[in-house]
Amino acid sequence: MSDTLGTDAAVGRQSRVTAGARGAAKLPAPPRATARRRARVRLRLEIALLSAPAILMFLAFVIFPVALAAYYGFYRWHGYGAPTDWVGLGNYRLILTDPAFQQVLKHSFMIMGLSLVIQGPLAIGLALLLNQKIRGRSAIRVLIFVPYIISEVIVGTGWSLMAQSDGAINDLLRHIGLGALQADWLSDPKLAIWTLMAIISWKYIGFAVILMLAGLQSIPQELFEAAAIDGASYWQIQRRITLPLLGPTIRIWAFLSIIGSLQLFDLVYIIWGQYVSGTAGTSTMAIYMVAQGRNAGNYGYGSAIAVVMFLISLVVALVYQRFVLRRDLRGAVAEGAVR
C-alpha cells in the first residue's frame, strides 16, 4: 500500500510539473502590450526630435540673453572687456529708487490701461459691425488691418511729421475753420499721451478686430437663431450670448496688449526720441533702458533695467494667467483629457 501511495504522489508531482511547464509556455508578453510600448517610445522620440529645434532656439535667444543680462547687471560695465567692477545689487537698488524710472513705470502702466480701455470696445464694436452682411465689408476689413502690417518706422515718421506744430493736422484744422483747436500735439504734456494713444490705437486696432472677428465666427449661428425665436432683441443677444462666448478671445487679446504695452519702444523712440519723451510724459521703460544703458555707455546698468523689465512682465503675465486665464486653461486641459 505504501508503494501505491508513493506512486500516486510521484504521478501527482509530475502532473503539477507538466502543468507548470505548460503555463510557463503561455507566459510570453502579449504582442499588443509590446506594440503599445514601442508606439509610446516612438511617440516620445518624435516629440523630442520635433521640439528640440524650438527648445534650442528658445534657450539661445531668450533664456541665455536674460541670464547674461542678469550677470552683467551685477557689474558696472561699459560694454567692452570682461566685467570686473562688481557692484552687487547696487544697480537694482538705483533703478528702484530712481524717480525717473518710477515715472516711466507709471507711464507704461498708464499706456497699458488706456490701450485696454480704448482699443477693446472699439475692436468689439467694429467686429460686430463687420460681422454683418454689409456692402464693402471685405474692403473695410482690409483698410482697418493695413496699419497693423505697416512698419513702425514708417508709422512713427509719418505721424511725427503730421503732428508737428506746422504739420498737416494743424494745417487741416486751420483750413476747415477750427484754427482755435491747433495745438502742440507732441510736446504738450497734457496732449502728448493722448496723441500717443491715438497713434497706438490706429496702428494696432486692426489686429484686435481680426481676433474678435475670428472669435465671432466660431460662435454657432444656431444660438442666435434660437434666441431670436425666443424674442430676444439684438442687444440682448449680444449681451447674453455674444460677449460671454467671445470672452476667451477678449482675454487673449488683452494679454497680448498688456505685454506689448509694457515693452513699447519703437513708436515712442521714433516720434519723440529719448529726450522729448521724458518731458512730454510719453517715456516708457524701454526708452529709459536705452537712454540710461546703451546711450550712456553704462551697459551694466542697462542690463539690470532689462532684467527688471523682464521680471515685471513675467509677474504681470503670471498674475493674469492665474486670475484671468485660469478658466480658459482649465477648459483646454479638461477638453484634452476627454480626448
Automatic annotation (TrEMBL):
Subcellular location: Cell membrane
One Pfam family in the UniProt entry: BPD_transp_1
ABC transmembrane type-1 domain sequence ranges: 105-320
CDD domains associated with the record: TM_PBP2 (cd06261)
Keywords for the protein's UniProt record, in alphabetical order: Cell membrane, Membrane, Transmembrane, Transmembrane helix, Transport
Membrane-spanning intervals of the chain: 47-74, 109-130, 142-162, 191-214, 250-272, 299-320
Topology versus the membrane: Multi-pass membrane protein
Protein name: Sugar ABC transporter permease
PANTHER family: ABC TRANSPORTER PERMEASE PROTEIN, INNER MEMBRANE ABC TRANSPORTER PERMEASE PROTEIN YCJO
Annotated family: Belongs to the binding-protein-dependent transport system permease family.
